[in-house]
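Reopening this one. Same input as before:
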Amino acid sequence: MQSIRWKNQTAVARTRSPFTFQSQVQVFQGQAWAADITLPKLRNRDHAAEWAAFFLALNGSEGNFLMGPKDYFGPRGVAAGSPVVDGAGQLGAALETSGWSADVPGILKAGDYIGLGSGAASRMHRVLIDTDSDEEGKASLLLWPRLTASPANLAPIEIEAPQSVFYVPGNIPEMESVRIGVENITFSAVEVLA
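Same output, byte for byte:
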């Protein structure tokens, strides 16, 4: 991929009175990843054929694929240990975790990614504040997007290469063939939520 423009989606509405100018904010549950993706010019016939087959296999918005941030080279925090979810039934923006190395300041830093689930249930999240581990190796993470499905107790936390499941909205992306290959291809992707 040449570039990914992340378009984080959140369901928040703000209304402002035309008379008093006071605002009211309504926060709904919806938060999801979306992106516009640009591929470089494909001058290699094999690469162009592979991308064409990928888009055809997706069949428009029917198919799904895994994707993560292309510019993520691991956490900025220490991220030491074998982190897992600490307790079942967790939903919302906070996630209790354990299995980190004990008493580490900056176990994760604001902006680090984590992943929960695997395969078709993969979902990546971004850590919103610097987080320390306590003397038992536990850490409370504040995440975006919110947890809409509760991860299982002791589910592993992916810290190196988190991904989410995406689909291409609409029809199969167009590929323009020119004499020296295929021109830049741009397509959109939207996170699949169960």
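So the earlier flakiness isn't reproducible anymore. For the record, The CA atoms of residues 43 and 181 lie 4 Å apart.
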